[in-house]
Amino acid sequence: MRGAAVAAFVAALMLMEGAGSAAVAAPVSGRPEAATASGKTRTAPVEERPCPVTVPAGTTCGYLLVPERRDVPNSRTIKVGYAVHRAGGETPGQAGPQDADPVVYMSGGPGSASLQLTGLLTQMLPGRDVVVLEQRGGRYSEPRLSCPEIVEGIVDTLRTPGPTADETAAVVRRAGACQSRLESEHIDLRGYRTAEIAADVVDLRAALGYRRWYLFGVSYSTRPMLRAAALDPQGSRGVVLDSLLPPRARWYDESPGSLMATMAKLGLTNRFDAAVAALNAHPAAYDTRDPLTRKRLTVWLNGDDVATLLAEALHETDVIPIMPALVDGLAAGRTELLQPLVDQAGDGLTSHEWGLYYAVQCQDETPGNSFPGSAHPRLFTGVVDAAVCGAWGLPASRTEPDALTPDPAVTAVGADATIAGRSAVRDANTRGTGTRGTTTEARATGSAAARSAPVGSATTGNTATGNTTAAGRAAGRTTAGNATAGNTAARNTTAAGRAAGRTTAGNTAAGNTATRNAPAADTATRDTAARDTTAGSTTSEGRAAAASGVPILALGGRYDPTTPPEAAREAVSAVPGARFVEFAGVGHAVFLSSECGRRTIAAFLADPASATRPCDPGAAPYAMVRPGDLLLTSSVYRMLRSPVPLVIPAAFLLVAAVQLLMGLVSLLRRRGGGLSALAGLAGVVLGALSALSLSAVADPVVLAIGVPPALAWFGLLAVVCTVLSVIEAFRLTAGAARIVPALTGMAFVAWLYGWLLA
């Protein structure tokens, strides 16, 4: 009876602690996976709520109620946001055909939002349930671990031209303020790590009543998805890993080498080094907007900062083609060409929840890195993240098994790693060398902006300047994420996309396994066809993973410096039957920017055993723009920001059209007018040829840094038009109005050659 009374008393305390919620999550002691052991704990409850973003019809949203820390008895309950789009209103858990198994998706970052991608995912995967899960502590979860203080600190480092390693004090101070605020809100940051996020995935499957489902992760979220597959092999139908972040990668230490390997693939090693060296010697100033206040702001970027920004920009498939021309221009001193990326970078800094980002990174990622001060380039992400994690002092997580490495050597890195992190920061500050970029990821984007530079998407997913359409350089970078990050800025499929891929901001420029990247000699001058690899290793880890019966599809973008395809290919090579597909001409977060990538994922979900390709992953979406293919100019981008300069060409074309019409009328009436007709015809033909030339540009992002060289030759028609108009205007019988075409022609010629093409 005494035991029964104690049990009743404990149950009463549990109910009192959860009062006010629609349902109460039972506290679970032990490691996170203890909460999901079959038959040993009850299903985590859920709570319905209105969807916080626009979602397709047939979608419902809610919260998964789980302990903040599963390893602490009576840990408080937190809410993890999710959305479910049901195909055909089927009852979850019903037996159905193989291709009807649902899929659960999560964005990267860490810290990129996911729910904004529900519409894209349901279009991509029709006929099956789609579940979209937020990360605990994310934008659509409670509590939300946002840290605007850190964004303010990063912006402060950009106001001066000095290296970031000398200016981390502002970031550390603001990060400490954020940590203190979160802790004052009774948030235990130790509960926000990969193992807990993975356990949330497993709990959600049981809570929604699905027997099994596919797991879909991008960038950072590939880690919790792999962990969830190991925790719940019976409930895992298969795993899709887009832009795989290998579990054993030393992400920060390998990122400079990964970026250099990507530049080698593009044939840009020498020009990239020249651009970085020149800007380190003479930083460039850019006018942009503060990502928080939207007020005008002048930032200074040195060579290492620009390297970080370019790494985030490589997340975006439509930015990759201009990279050769852009880097060549930067090396030649055309620093104004970077303005579009600078403007998009701010999205990456707002695409992530930085409290969540650092809670995860400081526990799961930074302890395994040494942050060498001699790295080239010295990426902003590593400098800032080492400084913040050294200040936060969170304990290192232990190494956990997952679907790729089911039996890792479990080691507690602990305080030694934290101390090493602090030492690395002190060494960096002492040396006075470093990098400062526009994102901490990067993607994110989100990733990253930007993970990801303030670009995302990234962006990290995380992305994202997370990933950078408005969302997508979000998932990641997340978006993206994110953002460019979102989901991505001028370049991802959607704003949400930048956030997901950006991997947006915090993931910026981070990379994996630089030493495993392809040699420059083999890849510098060509974009080779993508490779589809099926692993066949017989290692003990591979056999253990294969025994779980969980099929794995990994996808990678050829030019992704954050999660290089070489690292992903090697990571899955130990798992028999696991497949890796590389996509030519693609960067981070393949599914956000590649239709072939989306079709490949859908085909795998329909039949994981089939190796049939639904499309050619070796076909790049856009052709590369090499130096000389463009007349480099930032004028078109400036016109997009302020259309006032368009008044001159618009007036010229209007006057030319009127001139042609009046000249033809005069000819029909036999009153002369031949010169006017020819002048007007030259102006109209110029407009038509220019429009055809610009419309032939398959990738509109190209126009942000240059125009087709043919425009310079077409401009000769403007000269002809102007000369004929001047002759007509100064004839003795000409009226005063004849001077108008001559003046507009001269103004247009000056505008074309003195401003647009200058």
Question: In words, what does this structure look like?
Answer:
- This protein is of the alpha/beta class.
- It is built from 24 helices and 18 strands.
- Helix 8 (269-281) crosses helix 10 (323-331).
- The chain crosses the membrane at residues 646-668, 675-698, 710-727, 739-756.
- Residues 1-22 form the signal peptide.
- InterPro entries: AB_hydrolase_1, AB_hydrolase_fold, Pept_S33_TAP-like_C.
- Residues 430-523 have a biased composition (Low complexity).
Total of DSSP H or I helical runs spanning 4+ residues: 24
State the low-pLDDT regions, or none: 1-41, 90-99, 410-547
Number-wise, the strands total 18
- The main sheet orders its strands as 1-2-3-5-4-6-7-15-16-14
Q: In whole angstroms, how far apart are the ends?
A: 91 Å
Structural class: alpha/beta
The residue fraction in helices comes out at 25-40%
Strand content: 5-15%
* Overall pLDDT level: 79
The biggest beta sheet, please? 10 strands, mixed
Based on CA atoms alone, the radius of gyration comes out at 28 Å
Shape: elongated
Short overview:
With about 750 residues, the protein is of the alpha/beta class. The chain has 24 helices and 18 strands.
